[in-house]
């Protein structure tokens, strides 16, 4: 009987701890540029919730443990999604900037080809 009470109380404690860590991970996931850091406590909370689920007695209410698992899993998924969105946006900005930089260099090279005034006058006349 004592062993069942110890596992029940330890599973409740693990469930509460995993719920708290899962909520912290979820809050971190919503902060821009810090969201990826939410994956670490989210993973820890998910593991703790799984351990608490298996430690819980058969007749014990497992709602808190399942809530902790769902919140921690959502924080992991949301953190990963936010990280991928940031990565994709960063790639787009880098590609756009490099294209603009290449165009600027090409324009500067075309201006360098105008060596003399007569060459410039010929180009202006052709326009």
Summarize the model shown.
With 127 residues, this protein is mainly α.
What does the radius of gyration come to? 30 Å
- Please give the share of residues in helix: over 70%
Structural class of the secondary structure composition?
A: mainly alpha
Percent of residues in beta strands: under 5%
Low-confidence stretches: none
Give the N-terminus to C-terminus distance in angstroms: 97 Å
Count of individual domains:
1
* Number of helices, where a helix is a run of at least 4 consecutive DSSP H or I residues: 4
- H and E string: HHHH
Q: Taking all residues together, what is the mean pLDDT?
A: 83
Could you say which overall geometry the principal axes of the C-alpha atoms support?
Answer: rod-shaped
Query: Tally of extended strands?
Result: 0
Largest sheet: none
Description:
The chain contains four helices and no strands. With 127 residues, it is mainly α. The protein has one domain (2-126). The longest helix has 50 residues, at 63-112.
């Amino acid at each position: 009987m004592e062993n069942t009470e110890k596992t029940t109380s330890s599973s409740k404690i693990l469930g509460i701890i995993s719920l708290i860590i899962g909520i912290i991970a979820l809050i971190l996931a919503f902060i821009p540029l810090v969201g990826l850091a939410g994956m670490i406590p989210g993973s820890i909370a998910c593991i703790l919730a799984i351990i608490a689920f298996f430690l819980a007695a058969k007749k014990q209410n497992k709602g808190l443990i399942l809530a902790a698992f769902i919140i921690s899993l959502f924080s992991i998924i949301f953190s990963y999604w936010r990280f991928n969105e940031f990565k994709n946006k960063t790639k787009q900005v880098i590609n756009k900037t490099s294209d603009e930089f290449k165009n600027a260099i090409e324009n500067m090279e075309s201006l360098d080809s105008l060596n003399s005034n007569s060459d410039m006058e010929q180009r202006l006349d052709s326009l």
